[in-house]
Amino acid sequence: MLKLFSWRRSAPQTLNLYSSTFFHKPLSPITLISRFLTQQQPLPEEPYDPPFSPTTKPLKPSKQKGRNKKKKQKKSQNESSTDSEEGKSFPLMSDLPFDFRYSYSETNTSIEPIGFREPPRFSPFGPGRLDRKWTGTCAPADQAGDLEKIAEQRSAVLGEPLSEEEISELVERYRHSDCSRQINLGKGGVTHNMIDDIHNHWKRAEAVRIKCLGVPTLDMDNVCFHLEDKSGGKIIYRHINILLLYRGRNYDPKKRSIIPMMLWKPHAPIYPRLVKNVADGLTFEETKEMRNRGLLLPPLMKLSRNGVYVNVVERVREAFQTEQVIRLDCSYMGTSDCKKIGVKLRELVPCVPILFKDEQIILWRGKKGLEEDSCVDAQSRIMTV
Hints:
Layout: H1 20-24, H2 29-38, H3 62-80, E1 100-101, E2 138-139, H4 147-158, H5 164-174, E3 182-185, H6 192-202, E4 207-212, H7 220-231, E5 234-239, E6 242-246, H8 284-296, E7 301-302, H9 312-319, E8 325-329, H10 335-348, E9 352-357, E10 360-364, H11 367-384
Parallel strand pairs: 3-4, 7-8
Antiparallel strand pairs: 1-2, 4-6, 5-6, 8-10, 9-10
């Protein structure tokens, strides 16, 4: 209302029945309302706001909180430090008979790299911390150990085989998803530092639950072999991608072998090209035709990122009984995972990867499939004759 009637405020006047203004000229209701609003007393500019009451307990300074956090961090680091390097002098002398690598299950020792992305002289174990020399892909053992002696030592640690009741008891205790003794195995496979994690769990538990996801699940037999071979334990339970690794009856954490920690992940070396311009056994036009045909085919399977690929090899083998070319849809997985899947399928099926494009894998069954088809056609002709 004040905005609508923005005239100059006058001094407040009181209306009286005997005043001349009251009888001489009648006022409109709008003017009466405006005068009533202007005659109201203004609100106080600064309302009464009492101060806060003083606190009974003084606040602790922030320096003490920072010190407490640092102490907790140091305690957690000391607790998580492994027994394999405590109280040892560098360089460490390890009696493990195998070569140290970043990943044991995801590297093929038969294929030699053609180059390196970082100088091989930089060891991921740190300068002067290991008595072995880093070659760019591994730290080889100086001397090959006696296989019979190693087998005897492992059998002595494992002791007598477990009975069915003992196995069922351990499985019921450690197979559930809420188990605190769990290690996640990802696309790196069985890594070097994972062996140390397994031994740290074995200090307080008889078995470890290992959940496998990603590319290593294509070949679970390979994962199980490297877990048993590198850790010295035994797998007592296997269901799809869940494993239980048992430490043994006579396991003593104080007598465990020295496992030097890998301080960073080394860069992957450069390997020969996976897909050739012209596939073996085909001409350039035939390979081009195969690639175009594969891109137009419906996908045999759609693989998700960090999924479980246990049945992929069987499905591909079954599809190659009737088809020459198949396509796998690997959307949102990344080119590196697609190539890793192609390398594993080339060895396990076997087949020939002829194209990686837009996260799609095109596989050809190779020469053997053509020879088998020709033999089947010849036999069918003989039977008809």
